[in-house]
Specification:
Keywords: Glycosidase, Hydrolase. With about 450 residues, the protein is of the alpha/beta class. The protein has helices spanning about 5-10, 15-30, 85-90, 105-110, 125, 145-165, 180-195, 215-220, 235-250, 285-295, 310-320, 320-330, 400, and strands spanning about 1-5, 35-40, 95-100, 105, 125-130, 140, 165-170, 200-205, 225, 255-260, 265-270, 280, 300-305, 330-340, 350-360, 375-385, 390, 410-415, 430-435, 440-445, 445, 450-459. α9 packs parallel to α10 (about 285-295) and α10 runs parallel beside α12.
């Protein structure tokens, strides 16, 4: 659970903006589980600009071609300090610090044929000029048949670890799937962790069409891996994540996460790649759907909006303790229903939307923290249609709590508002239990593009 500068600032975030978001997180969101601050792409490009990348940029590099922060945007990095002073300030707030990196070696290092530290090799010897990113011009690829390629990553990670890095997002890794690159970064991180005695989480991007067949390799190599391309504040983007998260949910394990991408919530687009300066265009119901779906699918939560200037409503959503509780403290997360709903069964043109139901069991978190609903269950009933939808008597209670518990008394708690009816039979926001035995069902009205997200606790 963290903040990433991409959705707000693209390639141009400054030290003061990073610190402002870190202070806000520490004061307002840390207690709810948010604990990581990530500086995204091109922090080493002094000519970085909104809406694109610069070819032939004179990147800030050390004598071995390793990237250094632009001291104009990050004044504390001057005189070779790198990100160490910024990391120290963020750690003092009780938070973790991360950066973005592109795979490969800077073109500028190759053009100048800089030495690879600790080896007799040069950048030109270890580079692969044909193995390049299709959308970012900063780097050449690496020739992993040459031993100097691993050495390049080892020394880059040694520098990053010396700054106190906790998190590394590496891009252009999975589309197409570069297994040699992923393995090389994993090996470099392992060496840095052993030398400096601190763990570094590896996050892989982007994620278009990533196969679940790579799961074991990914678990062995990284803590996070994207399962989609960039996601923005459009309902269409959220809608497409339903089948992806359903596909990946059975493969989620604590510490190794399929990542449905950043949350485009709050104040975004200040100087970002897409769109103008704006508060997120997602409605409140769409924002709730996004959060509930990510949590039920156990995706990492990395918010993209500038926290100090986001709306109070956004911050209230992010401060909800249920986000961490469900993501970290649930098991058996799975989609139980996905049905296309028509107003008339015999009229294909009367399509209204999709009804999607998720269920999970409440469990203890990996750190031993008990769930507020241990022994109970979580459920989310989503509706993708453009107008409110009254649930018919089709969502059986037993499909969530199990056949053996269908007759037990249950309390329903709304996970967004934490409202529970004293009788346990009706939640004031609309979800309710009706019927008896195998005919007990969940009823309620779901808003357009919305969700009923609730916990069921035995009474």
């Amino acid at each position: 659970m963290g903040w990433n500068s991409w959705d707000s600032y693209g390639t141009t975030v400054t030290e003061s903006e990073v610190l402002a978001n870190a202070r806000f997180m520490a004061e307002h969101l840390k207690d709810a589980g948010w604990d990581t601050i990530v500086v995204d792409i091109d922090w080493y490009d002094p000519t970085a600009r909104a809406h694109g990348y610069n070819a032939n940029a004179q990147l800030i590099l050390d004598e071995y071609g390793r990237q250094l922060p632009d001291p104009e945007r990050f004044p504390s990095a001057a005189d070779g300090h790198g990100f160490a002073p910024l990391a120290e300030q963020i750690h003092a707030m009780g938070l973790k610090f991360g950066v973005h990196m592109m795979r490969g070696i800077p073109r500028l290092a190759v053009d100048n044929n800089l030495p690879v530290k600790g080896t007799p090799y040069t950048a030109q010897e270890v580079a692969d000029l044909n193995h390049v990113c299709k959308w970012n011009p900063d780097n050449y690829g690496l020739n992993h048949n040459h031993s100097g390629a691993q050495a390049w990553y080892d020394e880059q990670l040694d520098l990053f670890a010396s700054w106190g890095l906790d998190f590394l997002k590496v891009d252009d890794m999975q589309t197409p799937f570069h297994s040699a690159e992923i393995a090389a970064y994993h090996n470099a991180i392992a060496k840095a962790e052993a030398k400096y005695g601190r763990s570094i989480s590896l996050s892989l991007s982007p994620g278009g069409w990533v196969s679940t067949g790579y799961t074991e390799f990914l678990r062995d190599s990284a803590q996070m891996w994207r399962i989609s391309d960039d996601l923005w504040d459009r309902w269409e983007d959220i809608y497409q994540q339903f089948p992806r998260l359903a596909r990946w949910a059975p493969f989620q394990t604590t510490g190794h996460w399929a990542d449905a991408d950043m949350l485009p919530l709050g104040h975004i687009g200040l100087r970002a790649e897409r769109g103008a300066d704006r508060q997120s265009r997602l409605t409140e119901d769409e924002s709730r759907t996004l959060l509930a779906l990510w949590c039920m699918g156990r995706s990492p939560l990395m918010v993209g909006g500038d926290l100090p200037t986001s709306t109070s409503e956004t911050i209230e959503l992010l401060a909800n303790p249920a986000l961490r509780e469900v993501t970290a403290g649930s098991t058996n997360n799975h989609e139980t229903v996905y049905e296309r709903i028509f107003e008339r069964w015999d009229d294909e043109n009367s399509y209204l939307g999709d009804l999607v139901v998720w269920a999970a069991d409440a469990a203890e978190c990996a750190d031993g923290t008990p769930s507020a609903h241990s022994g109970g269950h979580y459920a989310a009933i989503f509706w993708t249609g453009d107008r409110d939808y009254e649930l018919p008597a089709t969502i059986e209670l037993q499909s969530i709590v199990g056949l053996s518990q269908r007759n037990d008394p249950w309390t329903i708690t709304n996970l967004f508002d934490d409202e529970t009816n004293a009788t346990g039979e009706t939640d004031v926001t609309g979800a309710r239990i009706e019927g008896e035995g195998e005919d007990r069902v969940i009823r309620g009205t779901i808003p357009a593009h919305g969700v009923l997200w609730f916990a069921l606790d035995p009474r």
